[in-house]
Amino acid sequence: MHEGLLSTLRAARARLNAAIVAYRAFSWAASSAIAAGLLVALLRAAGLGTPAFPLWGGLVILGAAAGAAKAWKSRIDESEAARWLDERIGGEEILSAALACLGRGSAGLFDEQIIREAELLAPRASSLRASPRPLARRAAVAALACAIGAYAVFVSAPNGNMAAKAREAAPAGGRIAAASAKTADGAFARDGGKTASAFASSFFPDDKRLATLAERAILEGRLDDLRDMLRSADREYGSKIARAVGEAERERLTRDRERIREAADAIATGAGSAGEAGMQGRKGDESGGGDEGVGAPGGAGARASVGMADAYPGYDRNGSGGSGVGPRGRMGANGRSPSASLGSASFGEMEDGQADEGQGGGAQGTGSGGSKPGSGSGSDAYWGNVQAEAGKAKALLETTKSASLFELPLPGRDSSAALSRLIPDSRKSAESAMARRGVPLEYEDFVRSYFMALSKGDSR
Amino acid sequence: MNSEEMPIAACIDGMAKAREEIARIIVGQDEVIDLALVALLCEGHVLFEGVPGLGKTLIVRTLADTLMMRFSRIQFTPDLMPSDVVGATMIAQGEGSDLGLRFEPGPVFANIVLADEINRASPKTQSSLLQAMQERTVTVRGRSYPLPRPFLVLATQNPLEMEGTYPLPEAQVDRFLFKILVGHPSQAELVRILERTSGPAGTEAGGVMREADILALQRAAREVVAAPALLETAARIVLGTQPERAESPERVRRFARYGAGPRGAQALVLAAKARALLDGRLNAAMADLESVLEPALRHRVALNFEGQSEGVRVEDLIADSAAAAREALAFDEAIADFPAASKA
User: Fold this and answer.
1) Which of A35, A136, A291, B232 is paired with A67 by a 20 to 30 Å CA distance?
2) Contacts with B282 from chain A: Cβ below 8 Å
């Protein structure tokens, strides 16, 4: 009985719930696409090797599923569907009322009549659908968000454009990488992601100590050291080849020697001076510590660094140092370190590969400067305690005991002027309220005396 | 249903005719007349507020004439006594030569009672009428006398002259179903009023309904179906007028002294049902609820001093509460939009 009406409402409920679930799924997918894209990019930047696209896709799907689950949990029932249909067909809540009548077993005087009227509306109601526009809009947003998230994942990947651009932008480092690519086993140049350790080990597969030293030289940008190490290894290969047993062994050693020699030549020709080198955009700065100069108060301050020697056994010693800096002073001191013979290089950030030029270390600097603005404090009988600091325009005011109610004297202004404009409006509101009997009788005298007191203060 | 009563549909038609008949006498004030009829169907009472000379008495008298009901008018004054309202026991000659006590009913024993300027009488006298309104009986010397049915009190008060008056306490104002503000007529309406009243003797309204029909309609009004969503909306609106609730709108919490209670919610729903019945529908709609919001709630919500000083209107707070209720019942944004073509 009345199945037609009930089935109409059930079908409408199912359609509306489907629309809500899809809408929420798209909404959450959009948010999670962006968030997951950023997360994956951050993980890549932190050097955590993860399967980027599967992780990102999984997070997006998880987000969409969570949104759908949340929507499903708060899905609408038949009475809500009836209300929705009523609103759409302008049925003056006839479907909702009919559903209520059915719910109570048509016990009311008018129930049967209402249900009959609702059943007449049912065919019209069954053709109603939720508008596809919100869903389409949300789907478009989700698609856009997925595209942005996927792009973020793509460019953060090892083969992504960002890494390639970084290599291109690194002037010296890029050249070295390119040069190395011709000579080394190819893997280092091909990926840009092979570690320095692997790169160094490829030159010194049989000597772990040398491989470690070469890796450190690569990481710290001491390409001259690396070059010298390679040349030293080249010389050692000569005796190794002479001692080699068998043609195959000799050929392998010869190949390795050629590779090392070419790499050393490439460094010598491609790296330029040590002070300009960058290495694949990887940060490789090693700044020296220093002493801090002290400037005169209020005047020049000087800061100078004294270089620290950084060396490895068997290789050249290079002092490194920073230039003296006077942060605010007019006469910052620059010094020169008598002991520093060669500046070291500090290497740029990974992305742009810029390299700063090293400078000789500085000695302790001194400076002298101007005077500091004065400060003072005082008191005034009318204004209260006033503290003033020149140059900061700061004044601390306290009201005096003699100041009347609602008067806060401020320097150079008559503060009571603004308040006197407010009093009449407030008084008018209070009078109006009292005229409407809005103020309790026992408070009326208080309100009147309050405004009288204000008026007296104002006239004074 | 009594066999002598007209069927409900005929009663509803009768109400429509009554409205037309009243409109033949009263110019404008359509909403006031509709609300008075709604109150009649709800067995509620109405408090009119408006300056003198706006036709309040004429509306009430015409209503009584049209519905063929007994009408009485009580002009409230400070020296009016409760016995002047409810009646008194008098010494009267009974059968034979015996003298006995006889209850002489007061003017409250009528179907429609106009309590003019109710706030001019003392609280004691006001209380006697308000007790009769609530209980629909009058008790004198320990004996109860039922009032005739239907029973409708239409009280008036003048919002301007407050000197020497006794404003109705909140608890007693709450007993009125509606508080209706009677406004000034428009220019066109005033011209028509002048045409009707400045000529020869005016016409009188003819009776179109009987007491029994009204009683049948009163019963039918309670049978009108209200959907759960409508009941929920009414409850939300009423609760939203209470300043102590954290969920209430910001202005309500700031400017209201107290809000409507369960009696206000009952008034809302019953009035919405009566309004639907007057329009010939057997179920109440949201539009019916909206149409009775202000008259049913404005005397149940009070402003605090700050609200009065700021010039806030009670109606604004009711509107805020209604808006909050609508917002709470709004559909999910996924289905809130719909093609215009599917609109009715």
Assistant:
1) B232
2) 97, 110, 113-114, 117
